[in-house]
TrEMBL record:
UniProt cross-references to InterPro entries, sorted A to Z: DUF6463
Keywords, comma-separated and alphabetical: Membrane, Transmembrane, Transmembrane helix
This protein's name: Uncharacterized protein
Origin superkingdom: Bacteria
Transmembrane spans: 38-58, 70-86
Pfam family, one: DUF6463
């Protein structure tokens, strides 16, 4: 998840009109549609939340905690919705962390030692 957030930022950060954003174009509603789309692709979108979720899940895993299965399933559904709306895109990469979260949940449910 962190890798997806970093890659997304690396792709779109070069396109961002940072100076016009800082000058207030977003607040004043003078930004054009490309500027708005780039804003929603970077700080206004999922990038920050996805990175934080990745950090949180990594910490939980290192501490031996289990994440509820619905986290992986919802993440997979979100990625599938994104692909269905815009076609093959970076949303396809959500299948990797979603699959890992789902597999970890199924494995934890089968292992009687993990029920602490």
């Amino acid at each position: 998840m962190i890798l997806i957030a970093v890659a997304h930022t690396a792709v779109f950060a070069r396109l961002a009109p940072w100076s016009s954003w800082l000058a207030g174009d977003l607040r004043n509603r003078t930004a054009d549609s490309d500027s708005m789309a780039t804003f929603w692709a970077l700080p206004g979108g999922f990038v920050v939340v996805l990175a934080l979720l990745g950090l949180l899940l990594g910490r939980a895993g290192r501490q031996g905690q289990h994440v509820p299965g619905y986290v992986g399933w919802v993440f997979l559904a979100w990625g599938a919705l994104g692909v269905s709306l815009i076609g093959p895109s970076g949303f396809l990469t959500t299948a990797i962390p979603a699959g890992l979260l789902i597999a970890a949940n199924l494995t934890a449910r089968r292992d009687p030692r993990s029920r602490t």
